[in-house]
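Quick one - first record:
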Amino acid sequence: MLQVLTALHDEAELRFEVLADLCGVDTGETMQVVYHLWSPLSPDWVRVICDGLSRDDPRVPSVTFLWPGAEWAEREAYDMFGIIFEGNRDLRRIYLQPDFQSFPLRKDFMLADDAARSPGMGVRAMEQPAYPAEARRAAVLRRSPGTGALIGADGQLLVIAAGTAETGTEQGGSVGPGNEASGRIGP
């Protein structure tokens, strides 16, 4: 893999000078490192995939000697996937605390919300609030200023209250499901 990346970077007719992105991938069976490269000589981008890394001890040589900016991307891949980049002089966690024991973007990573669930129960996103079945949310009603309309919590028009308009008088109408209007507006 290093020979391919070195040739892409160093050969005069290729000159892939920019490492636009380096990322880790967990396929569920193996780990991968993906490199996206750009050259001023071609409108095409090149994607190099280093496949077949062991899930138990994923290791790949660092490319910081070709692209010094790769140091941060390698640190991120280490922090999120646990991929060790041999030769990176500053391979430490970049997002998580140093004593964190797991790697969050691996397929086998379990969220704290899932710890008490069996794998067959599925995963509930932590962002979705779980309200107890007996809890009822009270409706919030507000008047729309200057119109006499009553608007529900979701912003849907509920009732048009009596009032006057330039062309006539509103005679108490409402909007039902599907936004069909009922009631009468006229003189």
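second record:
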Amino acid sequence: MSKSVRKHKPFAGLVALMMVLTLSFLVGFTKSDASISNSDLSDQMQSQVNDLLKQEMVARHWKLVDSTITVQSIENSDSKVSAIFGIHATHLLDYASPEDVPIMKGKLQYVADNKVSGQALDSINKDIAMWKSDLQTYITTPLPYNNVIKAEGSIDSAGKLGKESVAFYVMNEAGEWIPYTLSNITTPDEAEKNGYDGLKAQVQELQTKSQNDNIAPTAVVPFIYDRLAARDYGYSSNPTKVCQSGSTTTQDASYYNSQYTYYNCNDCANYVSQCLYTGGIPTDSTWCPGSLSWIQANTLISYMLNKGYIYSATANTCVAGYPMKVHGKEHVELMVYNDGQSRLANAHTNDKYWVPYYDTMDYYQVPQVA
């Protein structure tokens, strides 16, 4: 009997050793797993997003007043991590006066270099006064800046995020992630040149039209457009929820004006129509809530052009409260901020509120402005 017991001792010892090794492996695995927790990774990534925001403020020549960066989602697997962050900030345009802002410097330099008179001069003075008013507001009043940033990176063996491995993305108007870059921000030199060249082109156009006594398009029905009322209409947000399962289009109708019907996954023209109507553009039997001209982007723009309510513009003449359309696509938005270097928009589907846009736009302006 004792001989049998001695025979099984090596087996019992092997079992005990295996249990110890298994326990050690589990403890080690738990420790490693904890070292790459989503909380740790989001903290590391959020720090980089915060640095990115500071760099962006410098590039835009903005002074950051306050900011909140929130983690909207995070996933990590196979040594890769992907996180989406919401940025909510307020800023000031960081110049001492409107006359110091590059686009205004360009406009004023053109006036100093050229003799302009008559109706063209009156139009130029009105344009400069409008820009000065907006720029003064941007310099003195903190205004929103919102964005959504996606960060993707690699995790090293120590559970740390490789700083150089992180790539950043922003969402375009179609809801697609595209590489984030500061190179799409207009530089001060470019903005000043745009101000000069833009006013030069405006004068040439006015002088040509004056030969036919047609300084600006004439609306079929006279009205005065309050572009700041259109800008301040609001009724949008920066949601994470999508309009329906399987879609990437963001929409949160709880922020919408309940006096209007909304259209699931396709509310952009309906929203811009509400803004334009709030600004003072009159309705009729063709353009009214629920009509095709009200709710379809291409039809809306065609209607407004045909009625003389809007006309083609550029990025430097489409100011806050004016509509714009993604070039070659059926999607419209409303310009809410333009300082000559940076531009922000409001829109529905994708819903956005004071957010940069990243697509090529067709710009428009309204001739009868208060």
